[in-house]
Amino acid sequence: MNGGRDGAVPHIHLVSSEFPPLVRGGAGIHVYELHRHLSRVTDVSVTLLRGSPREQSTSIPLPAPARSQRYRVHRTLADSFAQETFGQVVHTHSMAAHIAAMRSGRPYLSTVHSIEADRPWRAARHGDLFERAVDTEMAALNAASTVICVSEAIARDLAKHYGIERSHVVPPAYEVAQWYHDDACDALPQRVLPWDRPFVLATGRISKQKGYRYLFAALRRLRRPTTLVARAGSPESDADAAEFRAWLAKVPERHTVVWLESGLGRRGMRQLYSKAALHVSPAIYEPFGLSNVESLLCGTPVCATAVGGTPQALGDTPAILLPDPADGALEFGDRLAEVLETAPYDPELREQTRAPSTRHFLAEGDWERVLPRMLQIYQEAVHG
To answer: Which positions ≥6 away from 246 have C-beta within 8 Å?
Structure first.
């Protein structure tokens, strides 16, 4: 290609630690969708970096990308990335990818889905390795020619922790047409629950950042028998997995908990969101919170912690925002318990959630509107 100087979209090289079949969180979903939409307008290469100690821990099944002359996938060790020479614009999407690109000596732009400096709970577990990871990530992001943040909150944190004052803010996009209220339940696991029974839904990786400890603590305080469905997989560590199982064992008998460890696919998740009476996300750290958006699009009320990019993502919707637990764990626990007692049974809240205004606001994040912005950033990168 000629570098896009004639207005053509340049050949994009996406680099990530997550791509089907190894997808564990929102970053992997974003890279998958970005590749899918880009491949309709230009050549795309994807490098899936191998070597993660938990790389086989997959929990979010996505359709295998269709083979195309405009799309290629390569799997390589992070240390071997310097040998990769695909594309005109290198676009990294994970800390390992940022670092690999920096060490390769090639120009690159980086999307920041989260930053290590915002996750201090890892310091106790990893000690000096955590500090080294923060320093290396800071160096890699400062070396990027362009930095893209998934929310205004991440942009502020980059300036605060890493001294990066200028960045683009492009939230993760989604296809609004794929998320809607779905009365069917044929894509849901049978025999685990009568799916017409009201239940509270929690989703997300088993990690301290998702705040499951607060959710299980609130369950112990509820008098009303409650059914919780936890779509939780890909534990960040063996310790996190053991802790999650210990919380499950302490749930009072008056409650029912269904733990879905493996993913359901997009259709299954659409039905799961639609069947839930409330989607709860008590996260202590959330750069964006794509599952909250998906739930609202399916017509299900959302209760989420007002941290990180969540207030921006949910904006003018009837979502219930919880206080930051860092400002007072007791206040946070009281409010969460109150919401779990009332919100799943509030017809007015459900009616507001399904109002056209909610969908209209969320439609701003559709790929149709976000992709042109990404193409503009790529063109700017090619032109220097």
So the answer is: none
| 195-238 pLDDT per residue, tens | 989 999 999 999 999 999 999 999 999 999 999 999 998 888 88
What are the C-alpha distances in Å from 183 to residues 61, 85, 146, 187, 274? 22, 47, 43, 11, 7
Give the total number of structural domains in the chain: 2
Domain check: are 142 and 243 in the same one? no
Residue 253: burial class (beta carbons within 10 Å; 0-12, 13-18, 19+): exposed
**H helices of 105-249, where?**
121-126, 128-143, 152-162, 212-221, 238-249
Same domain assignment for residues 259 and 360: yes
Q: For residue range 115-158, what is the model confidence (pLDDT) as tens digits?
A: 998 887 776 666 678 889 899 999 999 999 999 999 999 999 99
Distance between first and last Cα of the chain: 16
The set of residues, in sequence order, having a beta carbon less than 8 Å from that of 134 and lying 6+ positions away, is 116, 117, 161
Amino acid letter, residue 238: D
Please state whether 170 falls in left (phi above 0), alpha (psi between -120 and 50) or beta: beta
The answer for residues whose C-beta is within 8 angstroms of residue 232's C-beta and 6 or more apart is: 202, 203, 204, 205, 206, 210, 212, 244, 259, 260, 261
Is residue 305 in some structural domain?
yes
Which residues, in sequence order, are bridge partners of residue 89? 12
User: Rounded to two decimals, what is the model's pTM?
Assistant: 0.91
The single-letter code of the amino acid at 123 is A
Mapped onto helix, strand or coil, the DSSP state of residue 161 is helix
The three-class DSSP label of residue 93 is coil
158 and 182 co-located in one domain = no
Are 153 and 213 members of one domain?
Answer: no
Does any domain span residue 114?
Answer: yes
- Strands 168-169, 146-149: pairing is parallel
Q: Which domain holds residue 275?
A: 176-364
Identify how many contiguous H helices and E strands the chain contains and give both numbers: 14, 13
Q: Is residue 155 part of a domain?
A: yes
